[in-house]
């Protein structure tokens, strides 16, 4: 550890909670240098939906490397890119009747966010953006503008303007109709808020604490955007690529965003890649107007193509639904009964256990640490980090899924018992 502390910047974060030196990984298991085995309920913050070193994807990447094919191509035409576009259109876009053009952005999700905001402003000639409380869209300057966390926003060092935040669908403000309020703001010439270029939203706020937008709310948001000529951007970076069951998380609402952002698991293998999907009429870019040296990550194209093949061959959507049913039942029957203040929510294989009504502000940190000590990697999220977020690889074996859930239950039970003891002695 000393070499990391001596030479690596203080900005490092995940290693402060998961502090072993990791060496190998396969499927839903990670091994430390010392040989300790961990079940992974973190999945690279959503970048490893298909598991660590997925064998099918790995062999495709190895074969490509062995062939001395292009490994860096900027945005030039390459065979690897063509095969990804063909496969993505065939497996994902065409069956869903989605007419999108594809923009390859810089390698991280935040770059796709930046591109979408630039594009929306270019199209509409307006500067403002509507975003939502609890939303997270990245840590680069443009993305921080639409990220709501005050602590993260303060890292910018400058004022972040041209954004208006509204309560999210599952708002902590009871009986508040966000869509109705947005409508009033847009129709009132004295609201002090100008019509924005775009509305950016997540169907599930993962970093925000696994807050879920209802299908009805998303449909109303789509209708509001249409009425007022506002572009609707869906940030599907963390909960897309099958995390909720369907490939896109917005499919459950039966609505189509104007722009969709994908990154994290789109490459299938944890390789850097991000894309922006836009309706054809929105493609008003001039050549090179948004570019980047690594927007043509050829190995990511190979991994992404293989991941789509794997998705189709293994009927992963049905597999996720089966595992979703197990996790939902387990959390409902085995976790909720541990304390009256607990709540659970989620979709597919992203689930949140909310401790915000438990009288111990540090309980989630204690549970996460105990899980780690017992061989499970899992993180907390949301306001005051009060939600434990379950996000295993979609390919996880049921046995490991059960094992991980059992570790969570044990850790919660032990720490809840301490809380109950304090409450009883009042």
TrEMBL record:
SUPFAM superfamilies on file: PLP-dependent transferases
Swiss-Prot/TrEMBL keywords: Aminotransferase, Pyridoxal phosphate, Transferase
Alphabetized PROSITE patterns for the sequence: AA_TRANSFER_CLASS_3
Pathway: Amine and polyamine biosynthesis; ectoine biosynthesis; L-ectoine from L-aspartate 4-semialdehyde: step 1/3
Protein origin, superkingdom: Bacteria
Pfam families in the record: Aminotran_3
Enzyme class: transferase
Gene: ectB
E.C. designation(s): 2.6.1.76
Phylogenetic classification of the source organism: Bacteria, Bacillati, Bacillota, Bacilli, Bacillales
Cofactor(s) needed: pyridoxal 5'-phosphate
GO molecular function: diaminobutyrate-2-oxoglutarate transaminase activity
Family, per entry: Belongs to the class-III pyridoxal-phosphate-dependent aminotransferase family.
Protein name, as recorded: Diaminobutyrate--2-oxoglutarate transaminase
